[in-house]
């Protein structure tokens, strides 16, 4: 992909299925990737596919000292820093029963830590002549979902923060965009279905025009585009990588008006 070779990217949450796919796809396009995660085993495993191009840093993104030091070390190790992917998140959510501490934890991980990562990376982007940031929001940011309050609210906040970042960083030649995935094959879906991708796709079919859940690699390709020079005139945008989830109304893919004549 044009304009990715020799760039350096940090991917937070890189030990997850989607994060590992983002790291791998970016590395295949010539990007040197640093994974930040608290999952040491998963992080190191994500590096194994391309050990010369992907390296792991054990960083807790909610710890400003660890986060700033990790970013500083990556820039020093590679000589520069061009890209940041804020993917790390928590699904912690008890809906209407969520307590204050749970709210603060979700917002700290899903919103504040992404903002702090961008702030800490900013001077290194400036030194490199510019950069690109991709924040992971979600289809959950724009719809109500039964029993979920924290995750949708935090992702909606990050969506707005993306616009604010894009506004204030534009003069520094830093582009900021977001991706909002629909259902994507992930550890959560793997665990809930005991590893059944077939069942995941069957359930997802009712909520996605394309009739299935997404693959991590499909999300990774869009992230790669947004970090590349091919998207040089794109900033402040949110890309729905959701198989049509976001354009389906309450009727979903089934006709409803005809039911009035039944």
Structural class: alpha/beta
Rg (C-alpha, Å): 19 Å
Number of helices: 8
Query: What average pLDDT do the residues reach?
Result: 95
Low-confidence stretches at least 5 residues in length (pLDDT < 50)? none
Largest sheet: 7 strands, parallel
CATH architecture designation:
3-Layer(aba) Sandwich
Order of helices and strands: EHEHEHEHEHEHHHE
Would you state the CATH class? Answer: Alpha Beta
CATH topology, by name, is Rossmann fold
Shape: globular
CATH superfamily: NAD(P)-binding Rossmann-like Domain
Described by its quaternary structure, the protein is single chain
| C-alpha end-to-end distance | 53 Å
- The figure for the number of domains is 1
Topology summary:
Elements: E1 8-12, H1 17-28, E2 32-37, H2 40-48, E3 54-58, H3 64-78, E4 83-86, H4 100-127, E5 131-136, H5 150-169, E6 174-181, H6 187-192, H7 197-204, H8 216-227, E7 238-241
Parallel strand pairs: 1-2, 1-4, 2-3, 4-5, 5-6, 6-7
Helix pairs in contact: 1-8, 3-4, 4-5
What does this structure look like?
This protein is α/β, with parallel strands linked by helices and 262 residues long. The mean pLDDT is 95. It has a seven-stranded parallel beta sheet with strand order 3-2-1-4-5-6-7, with helices on both faces. Helices cover 42% and strands 15% of the residues.
Keywords:
15% strand; 42% helix; alpha/beta; 262 residues; Rossmann fold; globular; 8 helices
Short description:
The chain has a single domain, classed as Rossmann fold (3-Layer(aba) Sandwich).
